[in-house]
């Protein structure tokens, strides 16, 4: 188990640090509540773990031998995150979400976001490149452990959004929060691409 400790620390840091899916879970929870945001949490975490598994089983080699694929994924991810950021920043602001026609993002869309987001691919490549050989653990075990660490980390971000909801008692405050989350979400995609 001590051989896995560096990986566990890495998985925690990679999961808890701000990223597009964390921001999306926070924004969704502030707007729609925690229960409605669970598909984002579960879809995003499952897709990240699936990427670790896929890269561990050989998909990472394709990205390393065809860097143009990584570039296409990066641009697609930045554009997708910009569109989501725009949707959040310009969303209809209603203090009572029961009457809103807006719906939170679903699990499939959150999973798709992970597939075109450079951060999860970078994390998966690091997991396989660094920790698979040093820990001696198979790809499926690292993917499962990553999932088990990522879910509580993402739930923390959703909980923070829920807590932020208590401060957002006016339409102006909620609109500013949505605008900030939208800009951060879109910016995270471009920073990941250009950084």
Automatic annotation (TrEMBL):
Topology of the protein relative to the lipid bilayer: Multi-pass membrane protein
Entry's Gene Ontology cellular component terms: plasma membrane
Primary residence: membrane
Protein name: Threonine/homoserine/homoserine lactone efflux protein
Pfam families, alphabetized: LysE
UniProt lineage: Bacteria, Pseudomonadati, Pseudomonadota, Gammaproteobacteria, Pseudomonadales
Annotated compartments: Cell membrane
Transmembrane intervals: 41-65, 139-162, 174-193
Species annotation: Pseudomonas abyssi
Keyword Magnesium: no
Listed GO biological process terms: cysteine export across plasma membrane
Gene Ontology terms, MF aspect: amino acid transmembrane transporter activity
Keywords recorded for this protein, A-Z: Cell membrane, Membrane, Transmembrane, Transmembrane helix
InterPro entries: LeuE-type (IPR001123)
Keyword NAD recorded: no
């Amino acid at each position: 188990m001590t051989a896995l400790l560096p990986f566990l620390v890495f998985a925690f840091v990679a999961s808890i640090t701000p990223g597009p899916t964390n921001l999306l879970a926070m924004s969704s929870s502030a707007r729609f509540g925690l229960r409605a945001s669970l598909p984002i949490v579960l879809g995003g975490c499952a897709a990240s773990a699936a990427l670790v598994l896929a890269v561990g089983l050989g998909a990472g080699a394709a990205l390393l031998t065809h860097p143009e694929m990584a570039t296409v994924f990066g641009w697609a991810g930045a554009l997708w995150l910009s569109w989501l950021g725009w949707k959040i920043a310009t969303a209809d602001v209603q203090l009572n979400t029961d009457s809103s026609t807006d719906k939170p993002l679903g699990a499939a869309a959150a999973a798709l976001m992970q597939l075109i987001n450079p951060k999860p691919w970078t994390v998966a490549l690091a997991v396989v490149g660094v920790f698979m050989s040093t820990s001696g653990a198979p790809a499926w075990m690292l993917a499962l452990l990553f999932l088990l660490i990522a879910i509580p980390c993402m739930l923390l971000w959703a909980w923070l959004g829920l807590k932020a909801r208590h401060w957002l008692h006016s339409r102006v405050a909620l609109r500013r929060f949505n605008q900030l989350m939208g800009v951060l979400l879109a910016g995270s995609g471009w920073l990941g691409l250009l950084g």
